[in-house]
Amino acid sequence: MTVETKNDLTWWGKFKLEIENNKEWHVGPLKLIVRRLNNEWQIAHESKDDFDSLDFSWEIKDTEEQLVSCSNNSRYILHDTTGELIVIPRLADRSIVSRPHMPFNLAANEEIVLYVSSPLWIDLEVGTTHLKSLAIQRLSDTWFGPSTLEGDFCYASTTHCRLNYEDLPKRSHKAITPVLIKNRSETTLLLERLNLPIPLLPLYKSLSGQLWTPQITLIREKDGDMAELKVDNVPPTEIGTVELVSEARDKTKDNILFRAFNTVFN
Amino acid sequence: MNDLWTDIITFLSSGNIWIFIRACILIVLGIVFAKLISTALIKLVSNKMDNHRLMLIKRGSYYLILILFLISALRELGFNLSVLLGAAGVFSVAIGFASQTSASNLISGLFLVAERPFTVGDIIRVGTTTGEVLSIDLLSVKLRTFDNLFVRIPNESLIKSEVTTLTRFPIRRLDVLVGVAYKEDLKKVRATLDDVANKNPLCLEEPKPLYIFQGFGESSLDIQYSVWAKREKFLELKNSIHEEIKNAFDENEIEIPFPHRTIYTGAETKPFPVNMGNDT
Asked: Distance between CA B91 and CA B94 in Å, rounded?
């Protein structure tokens, strides 16, 4: 049995599986077992409820554990001779509404960079065939909009909204997004909830293996009714050399979006 | 009988047979063209419109083309259309008096189409019937109930009665009614309910769950706890959250009471005799 755990957080990539062999991943709260059979792949997974969110450890090992031990099982029939499984980290498929543990006020004409983390998803592929996409941590659904009649479905998450890059904990199952907030209004901005357009963001890997997204800039305009949302085309500067891990789910030509104030902040 | 036979022979031998055949061909062509053009129209605009509008366009174009071909066929047979339309006017008044119900349904159908309280594919509840709308026709609306029965509801009934469209808005509220014993601490009960809602991923974080103390019941403190869910996940949440609340109450030793009945026979009577099973 081989067990891989490293300091650099890189749990994804290409993995070779022989016929009738199993491989097991433990990333964050997720336990994932993949089994290869002749012309068939089986995937089982489950998430732990009692999980320490600051735990960054991960593990990949060959296992003989039965797939039925997990609560979710699925089978995929395809003719494949390579036995090569591709594991790709992705960002969530909907926007994430992050709620700071403690709401804060941003004074008029001030700006600040916050570091917001969001849980990852895993895409499993064999050759060019996509097998499954699953969330490492199942987030609660939420509704973000001015009323119960109009709005968008998002995922809900809580964040520490850390202000210093050095204070960020290393975590294998989350990506970090720097968010620059500029309050150009003459009134204080109370930040209780923040809607981040996660599907518009690509994913980059820093030298340490931590996953990052480009910086998002949110500008509260003077009139206070509109907010400008800008997604950088380049990876964040504070992490140095990076490598592109996965593209954005939704590709948009415009990286500057104007949105109603209450669809970005709340 | 002989006269009729003679008439038919005369009609066929006078060369009218070809006119008759041409009229028939026009009708058949009309049906084929109407079918083809209405189907092509649907394919052309299917991405831009909902099912209800698509159905209206399909039927409207089909009947319009068919009527044009029918008029041509009638002219081919030598009918004077102005006389025919005049007769149709008189005839329609007579028909109108004779079929008031159908006319009422027809008018109601037009109002339903204009008002659009629901469209094809929506789930509606009319009285005690709940089902998916299969079609909205001029005389009636057809539903498929969840136990797979076909229900036809006359348009007149729909206009007159209360209709609930269950699939109009993207989120729905589920009201959980629960009673707890009088001895329980309500703060602890509320915290337990909030914890259950937080842990259930189907329960929307926003709009926030609603806690309402409904009053002092006969044997319990009655509470309404309302949570929001995505419309498609409503049933799944309804099943899971009740089970989770029961488990959480058991874990936190919160009692869900039920009415107890004490039989009291009055001070003057003797107690009920109790016999043990083994003694009899």
From this structure: 5
Interchain contact B127–A (C-beta under 8 A): no
Q: Nearest C-alpha of chain A: how many angstroms from B210?
A: 14
Tokens representing residue B94 in the block: 């007579």
Q: Which domain holds residue A208?
A: 91-119+144-263
Q: Which domain holds residue B31?
A: 14-98
Q: Identify which of B198, B202, B228 has the shortest CB distance to residue A143.
A: B228
3-state secondary structure B13-38: HCCHHHHHHHHHHHHHHHHHHHHHHH
Residues of B in contact with A138 (CB under 8 A): 201
Task: Please give the residue of chain A at the shortest CA–CA distance from B227.
Answer: A142
Tell me: do A253 and A196 sit in the same domain: yes
Residues in chain A whose Cβ is within 8 Å of chain B = 49, 97, 99, 138-144, 148-149, 151, 153, 156, 193
> Does one domain contain both B124 and B181?
no
Whether B200 is in a domain gets the answer yes
State the CATH number of the domain containing residue B210: 3.30.70.100
Peptide bond into B207 cis (omega under 30): yes
Confidence of residue B59 (pLDDT cuts 50, 70, 90): confident
Torsion angle of alpha carbons B123, B126, B131, B137, nearest 10°? -80
A-chain residues within 8 Å CB-CB of B201? Answer: 138-141
How confident is the model over B191-249, as pLDDT tens digits? 999 999 998 989 998 889 999 999 998 888 999 999 999 988 999 999 999 999 999 99
- What separation, in Å, do the N-terminal and C-terminal C-alpha atoms of chain B show? 94
The residue length of chain A stands at: 266
d(CA B80, CA B101) in angstroms, rounded, equals: 32
Of B127, B144, B165, the position where a domain reaches its end is B165
B195 contact A CB<8A: no
* A45 token code pair: 């997974």
| pLDDT tens for each residue of chain A, 266 residues long | 445 545 566 788 888 888 888 888 888 888 888 888 888 888 888 887 766 665 666 777 777 777 666 678 888 998 877 888 899 999 999 999 888 888 888 888 888 888 888 889 999 998 888 888 999 888 889 998 878 888 888 998 888 778 887 777 777 888 999 988 888 888 888 888 888 889 989 999 888 778 899 988 888 877 766 677 888 878 888 777 778 888 888 876 565 565 655 656 65
* Paired residues of A58 in beta bridges: A27
Whether A59 maps to a domain, the answer reads yes
Is residue B201 less than 8 Å (CB to CB) from chain A?
Answer: yes
Residues A98 and A220 in one domain: yes
Q: How far is A58 from chain B (nearest CA, A)?
A: 24
Nearest to A144 among B198, B206, B228 (CB): B206
Q: Measure in Å the smallest separation between the Cα of A91 and chain B Cα atoms.
A: 18
B228–A contact, CB cutoff 8 A: yes
Partner-chain residue, chosen from B198, B201, B230, that has the shortest CB–CB distance to A153 = B230
